[in-house]
Specification:
With 267 residues, the chain is of the alpha/beta class. It has 2 domains: 1-79 and 161-257, Rossmann fold, CATH 3.40.50; 89-157, no CATH class. The protein has helices at 42-50, 72-77, 95-110, 117-127, 142-154, 172-187, 199-205, 223-228, 230-237; strands spanning 4-13, 16-26, 31-35, 57-62, 65-66, 80-82, 160-164, 191-195, 208-213, 216-221. The strands form 2 sheets. Strands 6-7-8-3-9-10 form a 6-stranded mixed beta sheet, sandwiched between helices. Strand 9 and strand 10 form a beta hairpin. The chain starts with a strand and ends in a 30-residue tail after the last helix. The chain binds adenosine-5'-triphosphate and magnesium ion. Magnesium ion (MG) binds at residues 42-43, 85.
């Protein structure tokens, strides 16, 4: 049984079918990539998995239970954490206080009581942003803010992390360190499902990759298989001939893509 099972999910916004029967899994202890061209439905899938978007059809199973209709906080309590493509930190709070609040929210949900200061500093250290601890969250670089999002997510000690474009804004060295961090989190037994446009990172770090195109999963497999898959090349690049000299391996990287407001699900 997989940690996360997405089955037959359909999401329709008016005339737009954002997700069209998508099905895929993510395993504990592994890094799974969810990739696809802009508008393929990746963030919408994340919204369905995390409970922000009600699907028209389909089911989500998490850690052995069907959670399709469960509210966000219940999924969170069961061990699902997520970061957002559009940054969600509290801009007027310091980096440290942002993480402290995340711990407090988690404690409020779970009823756990334990000293927090050392935990906060350990998390800042782990994601590599201790130097920014006192800075306001709205004053730090985008890449650092993404690491802050990850720290806030980790404060809830999730079994599954849903990361939406976590590396955008990181330079090459920071991206390498981030890849190591993800491997370390997976080695602890956490499942990671990552939407990411940086193909070098995806190909290096992921154990398995699912490719979405127009809301459908068109390929699933190991990085080498995905890279060689003609359908994937066509979806990304508009051609399927590997000998084509215009070939390039990286899809465009979007640093700030604004999403329409997410429709909240009443609970
Ligand atoms: N709340 C919404 N209302 C209407 N249409 C939406 C909404 N959210 C997403 N869409 C549309 O659904 C489709 C899938 O969008 P989604 O944001 O899931 O794609 P994505 O794969 O995350 O793209 P990107 O790589 O650009 O982030 C797009 O056509 C988008 O315009
Ligand atoms: Mg997206």
């Amino acid at each position: 049984m997989s940690l996360l099972e997405v089955d037959g999910v359909v999401v329709q916004f008016g005339g737009v079918i954002a997700v069209n029967g998508a099905g895929f899994t993510a395993e504990a202890g592994r890094v799974t990539g969810l990739i696809g061209p802009n508008g393929a439905g990746k963030t919408t899938c994340f919204n369905v998995i995390s409970g922000l978007q009600k699907p028209n059809r389909g089911t989500i199973r998490f850690d052995g239970r069907t959670v399709t209709g469960a509210p966000v906080h219940r999924r969170s309590k069961r061990g699902m954490g997520r970061t957002f493509q559009r940054l969600e930190a509290f801009g007027s709070l310091s980096v440290r206080d942002n993480v402290r609040v995340a711990f407090d929210i988690h404690r409020g949900i779970t009823g756990l009581l334990r000293p927090v200061a050392a935990d906060v500093d350990a998390l800042l250290e782990r994601v590599g942003i201790s130097a920014y601890a006192r800075d306001r969250a709205d004053s730090i670089p985008t890449g650092t803010a993404r690491l802050l999002e990850l720290a806030r997510c980790l404060a809830a000690d999730p079994k599954l992390l849903l990361l939406d474009e976590p590396s955008s804004g990181l330079d090459e060295a920071e991206t390498d360190a981030f890849g190591e961090l993800l491997r370390g989190l997976a080695a602890e037994g956490r499942g990671i499902l990552m939407v990411e446009h940086d193909m070098d990172l995806v190909m290096t770090v992921c154990d398995e990759i699912h490719v979405l195109d127009f809301g459908e999963v068109i390929a699933s497999g190991a990085p080498a298989d995905i890279r060689a898959n003609p359908r994937v090349q066509e979806a990304y690049l508009g051609y399927s001939d590997p000998a084509d000299e215009t070939r390039h391996d990286l899809p465009p990287v979007e640093l700030t893509s604004e999403l329409p407001a997410v429709q909240e699900v009443s609970t």
